[in-house]
Amino acid sequence: MLRSWIVWVLVICIGFGGPAQAATLDELYQSALEASYRGEFGRAEQLWSEAIALAPDNAALWSNRGNVRVSQNHLEEAIADYNESVRLAPNAPDPYLNRGTAWEGLQEWDKAIADYQQALQFSPGDAAAHNNLGNVRLSLGEYEQALSEFETASRLAPGFAFAGANVALTLFQLDRTSDAIQRMRSLVRKYPNFADMRAALTAVLWQQGQRGEAESNWVAVMGLDTRYRDLDWVRQIRRWPPAAVTALEQFLALQ
């Protein structure tokens, strides 16, 4: 999980550019955010670069350009941006959180862990940092530690649905199937259009022989997000743990 660093950028213009330059920077900032949210990452990168040219000492701009570079899988360039953001704002948690995500993309697990732990030093209640740290632990096969991080993230941010989903998936990985199903069903009741948990329920219930409920959930999944048919996406992008991926693979093989 990446996080955009939202700041009021006009204040940094005082004393070096006057109102006209401040307005230009604010317009660039808003346009870059909008392009980022629309998924126009190349355009967003260009706009963030223009903003950086006007305000090179603004750490948020560097971090936000790093985010759109991560979204384009330009991970080394993103890390260079985050490094500059950290240099400019060494006590801010967001650049560490975001750089950790880039390190994850490069499978530099120790560096990712170090960045997430640093983010938590500055912001102990950061649910995103705990969730991301759980993802790293999951990738390393440290499932009990992953579960602890996901549970902390879910407790800190009860509305953070994917943290709750990660708890459920990790419970299944740890052979706590009954607990996993209970958590999945609870999330689906709370968020009926949550494709991730409906797909997980499909896989787990099918494996448990509850075929009717499994197929009913799958129909809903296909109406919400067809990416769950792609096991590579589930494994590498969504990053389900191995047991859940295997269960989904078994279901798909019989469709």
UniProtKB/TrEMBL annotation:
Species assigned in the record: Synechococcus elongatus (strain ATCC 33912 / PCC 7942 / FACHB-805)
Keyword Zinc set for record: no
TPR repeats: 59-92, 93-126, 127-160
Family annotation (SMART domains): TPR
Endpoints of the signal sequence: 1-22
Protein name: TPR repeat
Domain of life of the source: Bacteria
Keyword entries, A-Z: Repeat, Signal, TPR repeat
